[in-house]
């Protein structure tokens, strides 16, 4: 392994000068700094991470807490996009990322124990049962955290604007002349509560009396439960003219049910999704959906977490809201004409 001493010999300068050049100090000449940096690159020099940690008391490693209850893992496009953009931003800021879990070989850790074991500087809580006591223990520990789509008291979070997103999507259907709107929502979570709030608010403003039997629970990112919910709704005596799905992937299950019932989209029933994943934009007709800006969520979550890590005395806890937009496809029939 190449050391600072090796670089100092190659450049015929002191080890102190090499250290200053590598760490960006200004009290050496530009010519010397450029020589040292060029030589370090050519010799494939990498700082000793363990030594840097001892010196700075930082690992430059961020933990990621991601437990996907839908069992989709990193194939879940919404979360994979968030994590990929978070990873790129972390690397740009000089941090590695490590997944935190409760299992390490034959050892069982708590989330907090694993985070301490890995000596992470902070943890990004991307997807989990946020009310799990072990997660709460981690949040309340000395390790800085930031959560996505869930806010803990006196801690920062990055939130997709689920209330406004569902409100705008419902208003879109109402403006297209739909007065009979069904909402297949995900399981009871804080995200679902916000989306229901947006849905009911839009219905109230639009003068629409929602029917209880048209508001049905399914599961996020689950085709089977959305298929069953769709079949249940469309077998009612009074049928809706439009169905809102918990996410774009779940809509595929709904589409299966509609095809079994010989119902066409948007001829017999209009549909909208949520998330704006690329998959549903290659279907025909293209799905009308609400795009959540997953890339921005990932970037802002890492930027805020690094701010908490590096400037704890000046960092104020905040909820950072990230808006989205409606992507209009061909799955909504205009009944207003």
Automatic annotation (TrEMBL):
User: One Pfam family this chain carries?
Assistant: LacI
Q: Which InterPro entries does the record cross-reference, listed alphabetically?
A: HTH_LacI, Lambda_DNA-bd_dom_sf, Peripla_BP/Lac1_sug-bd_dom, Peripla_BP_I
Query: Which domain of life does this protein belong to?
Result: Bacteria
What the entry lists under SUPFAM superfamilies is as follows:
lambda repressor-like DNA-binding domains (SSF47413), Periplasmic binding protein-like I (SSF53822)
Q: Which residues form the signal peptide?
A: none
Q: Does the keyword Transcription apply?
A: yes
- Domain (HTH lacI-type): give its ranges: 2-56
The alphabetized UniProt keywords are: DNA-binding, Transcription, Transcription regulation
One GO molecular-function annotation for this sequence?
transcription cis-regulatory region binding
Q: Which SMART domains match?
A: HTH_LACI
Q: What is this protein called?
A: Transcriptional regulator, LacI family
């Amino acid at each position: 392994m190449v050391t600072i001493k090796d670089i100092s010999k190659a450049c015929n300068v002191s080890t102190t000068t090499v250290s200053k050049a590598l760490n960006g100090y200004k009290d050496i000449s530009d010519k010397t700094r450029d020589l040292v940096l060029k030589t370090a690159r050519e010799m494939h020099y990498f700082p000793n991470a363990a030594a840097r940690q001892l010196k700075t008391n930082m690992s430059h490693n961020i933990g990621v807490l991601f437990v996907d209850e839908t069992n989709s893992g990193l194939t879940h496009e919404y979360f994979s996009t968030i994590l990929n953009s978070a990873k790129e931003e972390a690397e740009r800021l000089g941090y590695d990322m490590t997944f935190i879990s409760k299992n390490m070989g034959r050892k069982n850790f708590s989330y907090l124990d694993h985070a301490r074991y890995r000596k992470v500087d902070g943890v990004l809580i991307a997807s989990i049962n946020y009310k799990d006591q072990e997660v709460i223990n981690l949040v309340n520990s000395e390790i800085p955290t930031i959560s996505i789509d869930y806010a803990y008291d006196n801690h920062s979070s990055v939130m997709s604007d689920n209330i406004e997103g569902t409100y705008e999507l419902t208003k879109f259907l109402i403006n297209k002349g739909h007065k009979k709107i069904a909402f297949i929502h995900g399981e009871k979570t804080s995200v679902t509560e916000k989306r229901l709030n947006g849905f009911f608010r839009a219905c109230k403003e639009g003068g629409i009396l929602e029917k209880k039997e048209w508001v049905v629970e399914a599961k996020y990112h689950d085709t089977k439960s959305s298929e069953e919910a769709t079949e249940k709704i469309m077998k009612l005596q009074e049928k809706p003219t439009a169905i809102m799905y918990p996410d774009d992937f779940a809509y595929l299950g709904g589409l299966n049910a509609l095809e079994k019932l010989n119902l066409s989209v948007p001829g017999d029933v209009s549909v909208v999704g949520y998330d704006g994943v690329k998959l549903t934009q290659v279907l025909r007709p293209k799905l009308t959906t609400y795009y959540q800006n997953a890339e921005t969520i990932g970037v802002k979550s890492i930027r805020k977490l690094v701010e908490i890590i590096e400037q704890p005395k000046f960092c104020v806890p905040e909820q950072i809201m990230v808006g989205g937009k409606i992507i209009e496809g061909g799955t909504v029939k205009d009944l207003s004409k």
